[in-house]
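Dear colleague,

Thank you for sharing your sequence with our group. We've completed the structure prediction you requested, and as agreed, I am returning the results in plain text so they can be pasted directly into your records. Please verify that the sequence below matches your submission; if there's any discrepancy, let me know and we will rerun it promptly.
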Amino acid sequence: MGQEIEKSEFNAADFERFQSRLAEEMDLLRKLFDGHAFESKHEVAGYELEAWLVDQSTQPAPINQAFISRLSNPLVVHELSRFNVELNSRPHKLSGRALSLMHADLSGLWQSCSETAETFDSRIVMMGTLPVLDDSQLTMANMSEVERYRALNEQVLKLRRGKPIKLDIRGRDHLQSSHQDVMLEAAATSFQIHLQVRPENAVRYFNASVLASAPLLAAAANSPILFGKDLWDESRIPLFEQAVNTDSDGVIGHTGHSRITFGHAWCKDSLLELFEENIALYPVLLPTVSDIDKKNLWHLRLHNGTIWRWNRPLIGVDNSTYHLRIEQRVIPAGPTIVDMIANAAFYFGLTTALANEQTAPELLINFDQVKDDFYLVAEQGLQANIHWPGEGQIKVKDLLLERLIPAARMGLSALGISQDDLDTYLDIFQARVESGQNGAVWQRSYIRHHGCSMQEMTEAYIRNQQSLKPVHEWLI
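Please find the predicted structure tokens below.
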């Protein structure tokens, strides 16, 4: 969940105070890393799911304030727009029946959300991009009443010196748009997976998470349509990277490094490198100062939250206990809960397997090649050819079936995941890859087969989602 702030306008003194607090907390963080002070008992799993609120004609319903008030569950919070909400999980020790427990928790929370949405004659939907969404609906009038978002908007525009945020995506169609605010970000929703790791393994796990991103995204793609245009298999990727872009020629603090990024290099010795990079490459965006004890690392964590790496390192603080988490951000929301838990199962298993290989796989492949392949997969999905250590160039679908899904099975087994959970969720993931039908493929196939409108396709998508069947079983 995002850290809330108290105001949205700042002056030079605010930035100076924030920088001072940030420097103090960075010194403390260095000592924590040097002193091996992070909790290291076991791996822990969690997630965040962003969802749409839509009316009975599938149009965005800007009701999240009233919805959240009526639901009254601290695990459900505001997102950027009034027609989005975020569902959060409780942590689960990653062993035994952790996956089915996560499934049950999310199903129960989703049911409560669905019942609450019905009281507003609305529905809640998990879908990476909403095909019926119109560009004109992304206005400041539809921004949630949260100071953090107002402040984000103000500071991004100040850094850009008033230059509009431009969206330009060339896919099967070509989409161009221009906004004087950050509301384009609200057009993308995701299923963000959290993995708490042991500090002695953190570098290997982080690099493994980065390496796993492209094949994971290929299987999970669910965002082909934006503003009625057919773009990439996972159009969220270019959309989000352009929607909060503070870095271009002529912009204050131009560094040549976007705040939404796949990264620049493999992590070498410590995740501290990434927090050092935060200071070196990214100007402070939200300089709100808190009186909270520096041991909480409040300012450091707030600054880290304004840098949206597709794989983001997180520092958790709980009763003066610190832990390290990896936030895997590449996966879209949907198509169903069981599909998302299957995605998480594959991610946990593959990341664990890669992180424990005798020779670190990141030593066998160039980072820039992995980065290029990630964007190729976002565009082409399961049809992309990517590079993999020990395989050379291979179709990502074949790579998943021949090597990566078996590796994920080994990884889940090493974590102590029950055989029932392992089989249930990886079998669903494998069946999706074998069929070639993820959410993106289904959406395009349905439109092509029926020659229907975006609204008709979205209605059919919602019906299938409510059936609880995994997407590879959806009929066209």
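Summary note from our side: The first helix runs from residue 12 to 34.

Kind regards,
the structure core
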